[in-house]
Design goal:
Helix 4 links the parallel strand 1 and strand 2. The radius of gyration is 15 Å and the shape is globular. The chain is mainly alpha-helical. The two termini are about 15 Å apart. It contains 5 helices and 2 strands. It has a two-stranded parallel ribbon. The longest helix is centred in the C-terminal third of the chain and has 23 residues, at about 100-120. Helix 2 crosses helix 5 (about 100-120). The chain has a single domain, classed as Rossmann fold, CATH 3.40.50.
Length: about 130
């Protein structure tokens, strides 16, 4: 989101659980499009709130799995915000070789980009 639409929108990446390390295949396919994830750390909804991000201050939560959608709806049931579910393919565990695994991750990356563009229009060119 930040790469394609700039920094005017406050964006946080959160998961149902904290895995700490970002998957190496995700890092590799994001590097292909100029998105640096190697220093990124995932955090849970609970950690997000502990670190000062109040869910009620967000306008939209995009969940990429049924589990994250359930958790987001549970946490936000008293807030007026939108929770969208994007049925994006989970590439973990797909493919036998490095190349087939990377291709699965590329498909997921490209699905996310398509959903971003569907919702917010064509990506802006970096200035």
């Amino acid at each position: 989101m930040k790469k394609f639409y700039g920094m005017e929108t406050y964006v946080q990446s959160v998961g149902v659980k904290n895995d700490l390390e970002i998957d190496g295949f995700a890092i590799a396919v994001c590097q292909e499009i100029g998105v640096e994830l190697s220093r990124h750390r995932s955090r849970s909804f609970d950690e997000m709130e502990e670190w000062g991000d109040d869910l009620s201050s967000f306008d939209l939560i995009v969940s990429l799995s049924p589990a994250s959608q359930r958790r987001a709806l549970e946490l936000t049931r008293v807030f007026h915000l939108t929770v969208d579910y994007w049925p994006i393919m989970d590439p973990t565990g797909l493919g036998e070789t490095r190349e087939t695994k990377l291709n699965a991750y590329r498909q997921t990356r490209d699905q996310i980009i398509a959903k971003l563009e569907q919702n917010w229009g064509p990506a802006r060119q970096p200035t």
